[in-house]
């Protein structure tokens, strides 16, 4: 039996409650000797660490920088090497697009077609409002067509998501994108016989869209890539006997949570909205995933002091988690986002677990380097879920 | 090649000696700030730790609470996810029942049958002496039958083990047990065609036993569950070129050791009997597994101070191990049994290795938290065996 099957077989439903706070991109590397987390004043996290069991986690394996998809999957106990989410589905989730079983989604660019060549794959990065206008034109054109149903969802600048809805679509498709400027358009090709219908549907759409947009000055065609169906993925209810909920205010994290079977509540944009929502629904679930984005955003911007402030902000909300008295409270990150690197990184994540059944390690400062000295040692994020379930009394004994 | 094949290929026979002392259920979680091991005065273990290399081990993987079967298999280098021992075989081993290849064994309950329903699955928890009387009646009835040979072995209260001996039995069988009171008896069903004969043999036995016991006032039928054949498992002699011996006074641990090819000596009930037996046979083997049970028993009872005393007792015998000057001495546990939890747990086990080829980590106190700071770090119990073989000079180089 493998890890997933064993956890599934051993898990039992109980009344105990687990809170998992994901401080996105929390881990960093030092600037003038200190990481963002070391530089931040985090009295509440530090106090928590004193009675916690700490460690550091690798989302995929050492050296691998994960996207948000794999790093979150691992935290929820899904092997990121086994379950892979296509770019299309992640983009769709991130744009709050409703995706049903059998829907085919893809990332799109509006582009410029001149003399049979794609002369600008991003159509001069048209303003978002232009993108919205073009999507509206195409959506109107397709508004009465039922087979396939086709819908476009505008993103930032030249970006959009397309959703094809009709029975019998598959996602074994090549990108309909020449990848470089000054090349002719490339139709998608089916990589397997069962994707033939999907290829036909997609290529017909591109032709039709190009006809509809032929008089547009800049954005007169569409490129599509990252075709994906909604992945078939086990639900957390089945795997862990949980009634899980996501408390996140960014669409991608809500969408990813829904894919795994979590209820995803509507949450306002402020940090306090996360905690208000958690408190409102605390009685209704036994597992809560809370997602805090500002740390990652500041790290991606390369803004060290903004990341420090984001950490200090989330620290002030920790007492509201503690006040709920969950049976297990874990505070960690999905991946590191050092502001020095302006992006995700492969560095391990600080991890802290508080529970009456934990063996505290007397670490009084919640930082990357202190956590690495913790009793949990260094471990794959994949084991966070069985560990939380065990501490919550939700895993039976394995074998006699 | 996998881990097991590599160790098998690289292992060589030498005269060096390994002692593995398993202090069952040693690890704990704090009560008033200290675990049982932290609270115990363990001068000998602490002195040993100073010259040892320490770490902590996970028997299965993080979060998984193992039974004694999987946790011991892992310590002996058998992947507990690959090798699984049925409840019946463990119960048989625990009852000192001789099990040969092809024997089918099962756990049994004497139960009460009234008006076609099982009204009490435990027959009012009849006294052990009653169970012994009923087993004797049935054994007498079957004493001259040769095909199949059927034997019962009385356990505590209503419990017994049944052994069926005839060629062609398989263990793909459902439990012959309604699991709940006030349900009709359930015959076993074959889950695969090759188990058809076994199902017939088992169901005929239950019918016959029910007829023989029909005038008994309370215990007038038998329920059987956890059917298992002796598992086919590689022998330690073949895997590691060892001449291994078990020094244990509880039947289950002796039985499990025999399954893996160890000689299992008859050992008296006292702790000193373990060490007397070890010294008597020290010249005859190159690997010794010593099993000390009292720590686990006290933990299961939730008796913190009894567990502390059990730890202090085993500590006094450590000098007798050291005096034998083994090439490798490992002191660890199969799993944790925190008295706070009154049962096995998923917490990692303290692990200590003494050898002239070890790199000591200057840890002067043998506790869970100190071991977690040790040079061996946190590792799966599965690697204890290659580590011991390596330090004993029993593993060749891998590759050129």
Task: Summarize the structure in short.
The structure is a homodimer of 400-residue chains. Helix content of chain A is 33%, strand content 19%. Chain A is an alpha/beta fold.
List keywords for this structure.
homodimer; 400 residues; alpha/beta; Alkaline Phosphatase, subunit A; 8-stranded mixed sheet
Structural summary, described in words:
- 2 copies of one chain form a homodimer.
- Chain A has 400 residues and is an alpha/beta fold.
- The first copy, chain A, has 2 domains: 3-84 and 234-391, 3-Layer(aba) Sandwich (Alkaline Phosphatase, subunit A); 90-229, Alpha-Beta Plaits, CATH 3.30.70.
- Helices cover 33% and strands 19% of the residues of chain A.
- Chain A contains 14 helices and 13 strands.
- Chain A has helices at residues 3-10, 36-39, 43-50, 68-75, 87-94, 128-141, 196-212, 236-240, 251-259, 271-281, 294-300, 304-323, 368-371, 384-391, and strands at 18-23, 53-58, 104-114, 117-120, 149-154, 159-165, 221-229, 244-247, 263-264, 287-292, 328-332, 349-354, 377-380.
- In chain A, the strands form 2 sheets. Chain A has an 8-stranded mixed beta sheet, with helices on both faces. In chain A, strands 3, 4, 5, 6 and 7 form a 5-stranded antiparallel beta sheet that branches.
- In chain A, a hairpin with a 4-residue loop joins β5 (149-154) and β6 (159-165).
- In chain A, α5 crosses α9 (251-259) and α11 (294-300) runs antiparallel to α12.
- Chain A is globular and about 70 Å long.
- Chain A starts with a helix and ends in a 9-residue tail after the last helix.
- The mean pLDDT of chain A is 95.
- At the A-B interface, α1, β13 and α14 of A face α4 and α5 of B.
